[in-house]
Write a structure and sequence with these properties.
Structural class: alpha/beta
Helix content: 40-55%
CATH superfamily: P-loop containing nucleotide triphosphate hydrolases
Number of helices: 5
Largest sheet: 3 strands, parallel
Radius of gyration: 15 Å
Domain ABC transporter: 5-84
CATH topology: Rossmann fold
GO molecular function, one term: ATP binding
Pfam family, one: ABC_tran
Distance between the termini: 32 Å
Protein name: ABC transporter domain-containing protein
CATH architecture: 3-Layer(aba) Sandwich
Strand content: 5-15%
Amino acid sequence: MQTGLKISYLPQDLSSYHGYLPAFAKEHDLDYEHFLNQLKKLGLEREAFKQKIEEMSQGQKKRVALAKSLTEEASLYLWDEPANYLDLFNQDQLIKLLAKEQPAMLLVDHDQAFIEAVAKERVNLRPVL
């Protein structure tokens, strides 16, 4: 591994995400304004900004997780099922955001349309029989 390599990981399980957005950002050393900006780009509704993360819908939690990862300055973004719980509109928002920012990324997803929209290269894994 390269010295100083910074990795931002987007987990599939978001059960450890909790609290209000300002405290969450502080706990994870996120620039709060940049974090809010990413949430807006990902289409998080205004009323959700006042909720605890654990009270949000799965789609809202996923957008919080995506915004957290995108706010982190990283050399590589590792994302596990980023399109899970996102409706088509929010998937489109994410696709546009990734096309604009073009981060170095390795992602795992079952949604072939999403993969085709965001990936420059892909590896298909098949079970060994």
